[in-house]
Design goal:
Number of strands: 11
Strand content: 25-35%
Radius of gyration: 19 Å
Number of helices: 3
CATH superfamily of the largest domain: D-amino Acid Aminotransferase, subunit A, domain 2
Order of helices and strands: HEEEHEEEEHEEEE
Distance between the termini: 43 Å
CATH topology of the largest domain: D-amino Acid Aminotransferase, Chain A, domain 2
Structural class: alpha/beta
CATH class of the largest domain: Alpha Beta
Largest sheet: 9 strands, mixed
Shape: globular
Length: about 190
């Protein structure tokens, strides 16, 4: 990690007059340009991008199912290697749905293209286990904390698609989109919505 001074973020916000409205700040740490190929010896570079953000309207999502098993060796790390995730969004567009969920080779539910999934049944909060090959993001972490505070039992699960309970309330999370309800996955429509 290169040296980071939070004052730089304040200056960037001020220079762009980004004090009002909704803005997206993306902080990227690159691998740097040193000749060493070993991560501990490389010092990265810092890149920051700031732009106005217009959130899409919140409506229940129709999700498709990505047709190929999804496994990334670096799934637990937020990365700019988005090609696989963009392929998932392209498949969603091809299917005429809002997004697609990904599955392991054995059909275990993982996540959406750029968001995590959770569902509730009564006072139980279910989400795919962080042990699975997925990125357990900031928003899902916050939802788990909030659910605990509200007295929900938290269950980290390895659920096959066909075992998803139909009477649950389903949601997709994301840093910018927030928490959005899910109306259907494939041909399964949820009674809980």
């Amino acid at each position: 990690m290169p040296p980071f001074d939070p004052q730089i973020v304040s200056e960037l916000i001020s220079l762009n007059k980004a004090e009002k409205g909704v803005w997206r700040l993306k902080i990227i740490v690159t691998g740097g340009d040193a000749p060493e190929l070993f991560l501990p010896e490389r010092e990265g570079r810092l890149v920051m991008l700031l732009g106005a953000y217009n959130p899409p309207p919140c409506k229940p999502l129709k999700l498709g199912i990505f047709p190929h098993p999804f496994h990334l060796c670096h799934a637990h790390f937020k990365s700019l290697a988005h090609l696989n995730r963009l392929y998932v969004t392209q498949e969603a567009r091809r299917q005429g749905v809002d997004d697609c969920i990904t599955l392991t080779e054995s059909g275990i539910v993982l996540e959406a293209s750029f968001g995590n999934l959770f569902w509730t049944v009564g006072k139980t909060f279910y989400t795919p286990s962080p042990e699975l090959p997925l990125y357990f993001g900031v928003t899902i972490e916050q939802m788990v904390l909030q659910a605990k505070e509200e007295g929900y039992e938290i269950v980290y699960t390895k659920t096959p698609l066909e075992k998803l309970p139909q009477k649950a309330h389903y949601y997709r999370t994301g840093s910018m989109a927030g928490v959005v309800p899910i109306a259907s996955i494939g041909s399964i429509y949820f009674a809980g919505l």
